[in-house]
Amino acid sequence: xxxxxxxxxxxxxxxxxxxxxxxxxxxxxxxxxxxxxxxxxxxxxxxxxxxxxxxxxxxxxxxxxxxxxxxxxxxxxxxxxxxxxxxxxxxxxxxxxxxxxxxxxxxxxxxxxxxxxxxxxxxxxxxxxxxxxxxxxxxxxxxxxxxxxxxxxxxxxxxxxxxxxxxxxxxxxxxxxxxxxxxxxxxxxxxxxxxxxxxxxxxxxxxxxxxxxxxxxxxxxxxxxxxxxxxxxxxxxxxxxxxxxxxxxxxxxxxxxxxxxxxxxxxxxxxxxxxxxxxxxxxxxxxxxxxxxxxxxxxxxxxxxxxxxxxxxxxxxxxxxxxxxxxxxxxxxxxxxxxxxxxxxxxxxxxxxxxxxxxxxxxxxxxxxxxxxxxxxxxxxxxxxxxxxxxxxxxxxxxxxxxxxxxxxxxxxxxxxxxxxxxxxxxxxxxxxxxxxxxxxxxxxxxxxxxxxxxxxxxxxxxxxxxxxxxxxxxxxxxxxxxxxxxxxxxxxxxxxxxxxxxxxxxxxxxxxxxxxxx
Amino acid sequence: xxxxxxxxxxxxxxxxxxxxxxxxxxxxxxxxxxxxxxxxxxxxxxxxxxxxxxxxxxxxxxxxxxxxxxxxxxxxxxxxxxxxxxxxxxxxxxxxxxxxxxxxxxxxxxxxxxxxxxxxxxxxxxxxxxxxxxxxxxxxxxxxxxxxxxxxxxxxxxxxxxxxxxxxxxxxxxxxxxxxxxxxxxxxxxxxxxxxxxxxxxxxxxxxxxxxxxxxxxxxxxxxxxxxxxxxxxxxxxxxxxxxxxxxxxxxxxxxxxxxxxxxxxxxxxxxxxxxxxxxxxxxxxxxxxxxxxxxxxxxxxxxxxxxxxxxxxxxxxxxxxxxxxxxxxxxxxxxxxxxxxxxxxxxxxxxxxxxxxx
Amino acid sequence: xxxxxxxxxxxxxxxxxxxxxxxxxxxxxxxxxxxxxxxxxxxxxxxxxxxxxxxxxxxxxxxxxxxxxxxxxxxxxxxxxxxxxxxxxxxxxxxxxxxxxxxxxxxxxxxxxxxxxxxxxxxxxxxxxxxxxxxxxxxxxxxxxxxxxxxxxxxxxxxxxxxxxxxxxxxxxxxxxxxxxxxxxxxxxxxxxxxxxxxxxxxxxxxxxxxxxxxxxxxxxxxxxxxxxxxxxxxxxxxxxxxxxxxxxxxxxxxxxxxxxxxxxxxxxxxxxxxxxxxxxxxxxxxxxxxxxxxxxxxxxxxxxxxxxxxxxxxxxxxxxxxxxxxxxxxxxxxxxxxxxxxxxxxxxxxxxxxxxxxxxxx
Lengths: 519, 359, 363
Fold this sequence. Notes:
The complex is a heterotrimer of chains A (519), B (359) and C (363).
Chain A: E1 19-28, E2 31-41, E3 46-50, H1 57-64, E4 72-77, E5 80-82, H2 87-92, E6 95-98, H3 110-115, H4 119-122, H5 126-138, H6 154-167, E7 172-176, H7 184-199, E8 203-208, H8 211-217, E9 220-225, E10 228-233, H9 240-248, E11 266-276, E12 282-292, E13 296-300, H10 307-315, E14 321-326, E15 329-330, H11 336-341, E16 344-347, H12 351-355, H13 362-367, H14 384-397, H15 414-426, E17 432-436, H16 444-459, E18 463-467, H17 471-477, E19 480-485, E20 488-493, H18 500-507
Parallel strand pairs in A: 3-8, 3-9, 6-7, 7-8, 13-18, 13-19, 16-17, 17-18
Antiparallel strand pairs in A: 1-2, 1-4, 4-5, 9-10, 11-12, 11-14, 14-15, 19-20
Helix pairs in contact in A: 15-16
Chain B: H1 2-21, H2 23-35, H3 40-43, E1 50-55, H4 65-80, E2 83-88, H5 95-107, E3 113-115, H6 121-127, E4 136-139, E5 152-157, H7 159-173, E6 178-185, H8 188-204, E7 209-216, H9 226-238, E8 243-247, H10 252-262, E9 267-272, E10 287-293, H11 295-307, E11 314-318, E12 325-327, H12 338-350
Parallel strand pairs in B: 1-2, 1-3, 3-4, 4-5, 5-11, 6-7, 6-8, 8-9, 9-10
Antiparallel strand pairs in B: 10-12
Helix pairs in contact in B: 4-11, 5-6, 7-8, 7-12, 9-10
Chain C: H1 2-34, H2 39-47, H3 52-76, H4 85-102, H5 107-136, H6 140-162, E1 164-166, E2 169-171, H7 198-214, H8 216-226, H9 228-233, H10 238-255, H11 258-265, H12 276-286, H13 291-308, H14 311-314, H15 322-362
Antiparallel strand pairs in C: 1-2
Helix pairs in contact in C: 1-15, 3-7, 3-10, 3-12, 3-13, 4-5, 4-6, 4-10, 4-12, 5-6, 5-10, 7-8, 12-13, 12-15, 13-15
Family (chain B): Belongs to the BMP lipoprotein family.
Subcellular location (chain B): Cell membrane
Organism (chain B): Nocardioides pocheonensis
């Protein structure tokens, strides 16, 4: 996003920015990420690109933005064939991109963030400020150029990102899963902005896998599956069911857990747990809850409100204050390995960073996290045979699609990696499962399988701490939901009665909170 | 990608480490190339002694020790119709490599075989008994064990005597009554230089002040560290010294640079060979003299003794009397005091002055 | 199908080193030409059939280099850059020679004690860097380089102040004859003996290989090296691992000079062979930190150094020129592995594409 632009695109009002994508092919080592991809995006529309995670949406988007070059096929913008070798070229062609993860400097103001790398356009002074104010007013962003980004909420930050691409003259705006980080209220605000943009003649490519949202905002829909475009739909007539079937070729699974299996045996207790960072700021404050055997406790919250730290504290990777009790034993002084040996299983949020050794074969990944126990080792030696057998078992039981257990973890698709991790953690016969975004980035089939495994384990008396950004998943699976905000538990909800809107309000510190208690 | 860059970092570190140790390699290769045609061994076709000359690290072209030995060899080729082969040490080489080099020469029928530098002492001691008919010589060498070898000569120098003479020169030229010494490595050999230099200076001006600095405690890289030499010499110049004598091999160029930076009236004294001849134009006006260690004389002497049929054996000391040490007059800076230096030399030769070999 | 697969993996494994060797030969040839010497002479010398004496020396040197590279590889496997092998083995060699020279114990026991001392000293010296890293966050690259300098100075100081006069240098008291090992003389006595303690290299290689590949500790070490975050999540205490790895690396480094010490060097003094620690780092890279790869790398380096010895004598080129060959081969191997990895990936990709197409046709 650091490129500069020489001209400002066409004046607002007149639709432009039509894109025709033909027969795009993109291969990565071991994977064909895109093939036979064909999309026609009409200028001045909101075009939704839907598909399961791993369907190839992100790859296509990166190709459109010049981050990656296709191995075949053509792209036309406004009737002219283009070939991008870098995002700079894409920006010149009027294409802007808003990534899921914001690229903003917290300690700079909105103005500074916007002009950073585009100083040549309107300078860095009053002219730039005026332009930012003009864009902000035109689309109802309500941004103050001189406010520090660190003081902004998630929705506002996203608007800063959009403003950045508009400032650079984008006529076509690609939004990658823009709602993933937003609570429902913020989603509505975003959609209002998008409609304004469309009214100004801009073209929007909206990438998502949330069908409700797509139906609410899109003018056209293209569906991708397994790296190719498999169909188009008219949002006025299409139903969620039809779209879902296009996406996965089967019915949408539901996370519903059925009847409660919560027992009266408390397995995990957190008593006034707190955590401060090296600068003394509180990351976690006064966290207290209990999880019973057979219970799934869901933690809802906007990302970055202490979920990660909470998990790491329970896992023993961070040392906090307060008391953590596992199955009646005080485990505060235990290190991570001791906690794992005591039956704590962990599905990390970032599987590549925390859950796998990508360049190790699957069977060695079976050992990771369970180094000290059978079947991985006898305490001193790695028991290769047993570990391999167990890995074979996991591959079979959890439907991990892999040529062999000797294949490196990197070669597997995200969903299969995740299924393997879930299988690994489950087969260690745990008493507590900490599942952080267990179905993030996996396809629907895998998602259903993972839900099934969690539900089955719960029936067998497993206690589960579930952290998820997917409110449907949380509400569907959990027996209890706690909402975390700025490191504190701010509300307890009964998933039987709560709505995503209620949760959203609590997650952002809104109005209806405390009284939603379930117990 | 990340992994690749990480590996690259290590590779670069390793490479720096490798080349850092062999940094003398580069210029030497140039020299090898440029002097390859001038190699006297390629053209020598006499029927005199067949000489094997094994250089120390740096080899021919080091403008010092090894070149001096080569000069002696060249003279032998001219005067004694000698033929020759050469070998060269690499930095950090194994003891077995030195032995191999000598054995290769012996197997090729060379006689005498001369190792340049004390590092050949052990290797010669190990190899010589296997070749009783071949004479070996070691420049600066010594007998490492109690068993004397009948066919080995240890060619040593009275560096203290030569250093005494440049000490006299330094004392006479110093206006501040304050001079300095920079040693490469703080070992017994270099202490010998220091002892003679200090004695010569004090004998000339009893109240003279002498700063003494060593670049390294024991690491031989003190002989190849111009930056270290410059640092030590600069400190002495800053401290008030106006003449600095170095016994630090290739680090000496740093000492010369320090004299240049210190300005007019500041002198440096070279060592081993006449360093005025090889110094840069900027350095030349600051090189007062050099203490000469006539490795060429010793080398030639060794070859000649074999040619004459009475090979040198045991310890041989090349002192002033044998013209094994001396001082250089290039540049003409000591012409005015030459008579006084020569007077000291005469007294040393006659035994009137005994030069200490320990500080 | 299966044999072709095996064949392919063998080709893939050998391709990169082969490319690297060819590239380094080409570069060296160019340097030889620039230096004004004959390329033919040069390679004739390098590739001449080694004499018995050469073979003995190559074997002995390979063992030293192998130990040095092994020490480096242990760190590398865990992303620890122990640049301090040089200092560790210098200090260990000095201390072991000092202790053995005192002859406090009889004959072979003296050797065993000296070996233990060498390992302990090497480990302790490396351990300093490990402890500094985990307690103070000091990069081991910096601290080990500093420790190299300190080790050299300390040994030099001790030697020149407490060493035995030895020509114009100093040495430690030679080890008693009862503790000197005759070695194995496969040919004539004048061809030299293969040092008895070359066996240390074999033992260390097998032990470390087993430790890294078969034990839980080795798994933790490799996991930490490839993905530290995941290792932490899996329960590895990285700080502990850093210190232990440095200790092991240092202990192996401590052994580097032991075969030579008890094989004929007899004391620590001027003939001590320096720079093995840096050679070891290069060979570890060349061998991809795998004991077998390191073995071939060590033999290659030892071969080049030994065969290059008569270069000045025969071809009138400085033998130091093989240091260029050695340096280039290390750089080239890093690049070649990446290139081959990409070729392999592209090949697999085509395979997969072909498989997809077949599927599409049959569907």
